[in-house]
Known about the structure:
With 332 residues, the protein is of the alpha/beta class. Among the domains are: 20-71, no CATH class; 175-306, Rossmann fold (3-Layer(aba) Sandwich), CATH 3.40.50.1400. It is built from eleven helices and eight strands. It has helices at 24-35, 45-71, 78-98, 116-125, 142-156, 175-188, 206-210, 215-230, 255-264, 282-298, 314-327, and strands at residues 9-18, 104-112, 130-135, 165-167, 196-202, 237-242, 269-273, 303-306. The strands form two sheets. The protein has a four-stranded parallel β-sheet with strand order 2-1-3-4, with helices on both faces. It has a four-stranded parallel β-sheet with strand order 6-5-7-8, sandwiched between helices. The longest helix has 27 residues, at 45-71. 42% of the residues are buried.
Amino acid sequence: MPQSARSRTGILLLQLGTPDAPTTPALRRYLRQFLSDVRVVDTFRPLWWAILNGVVLVTRPARSARLYASVWSPEGSPLLVTSEAQARALEAQLADTMGDGAPCVAVAMRYGNPSTERAVADLRARGCNRFLAFPMYPQYASATTGSSLEDVMRVLMPERVVSPLRVVPPYPDDPAYIDALVDSARRAFVDWVPDHIVLSFHGIPKRYAELGDPYPEHCTATTRAFAAALDWPPDRLTMSYQSLFGREEWLRPYTDQTLKQLAGRGFERLAVFCPGFLADCLETLEEIGITGREQYRHAGGRDYRLIPCLNVNEAWVDGMTRIVTRELAGWD
């Protein structure tokens, strides 16, 4: 039988990761794995090991556990719950459009669970023998997309017969993604229109961009495409970067400073989107939804609204389906 006649595709939704529980021991395990990745922190290893084990993993887990506890749901980690819902919704829609033999979908976390190894094993158990890696990061960064893809290859490469693999390329201004963002904005603005919009992306060290990461260009591409599709005045929209870590300079402007400045300039109704995050998580729900609101209001702002991530919005499930269908074209 020809290979194509007995092949089934497994789709790996690549996400960054989440701790298993909002507890200090769970956060210590998660942070050790996350911050040991050289793509995330590329400091000289002996020096970084001393800082990580002697300082960071001693002081940070308890504080991070408290933050996670503030957004943890009865079902578990918001990122994991939503990512698994996205996988189910995408698989169902692909089955509706492609029929028998449609791809199976699984979530693969770079750090924590479900791991890439587990995701690949689960898809193999369902008969999948070729894979499409779909990074849940529209804008490419080595610390996110690069690390997740490296992990996929690490899992697949030791096989005697290496499975065929395709990768969804970065999609910062892909209409399938931008259409979903605009749909989210229009629904949020039905009975309320902000004075100003902030698009807050996860930051990276400035040096990483200087080394070649196209991340800031991708964030700019998303911002421009979003504003054009929404027909939103550029002078009423600001792009910024959040989630700084360490003492090194990161990409600017910083979101926390931007929120305070906008309040000081008299913008009383502020809408904040986090378009680099496709599922709500600690960085959106707590950092922007709670702490960001406090910073804005303390600086004199009034009406502050965090617009939810795309999550399982129908427009984004449609968008994922469009992207997957395009990337699988010709793979028969």
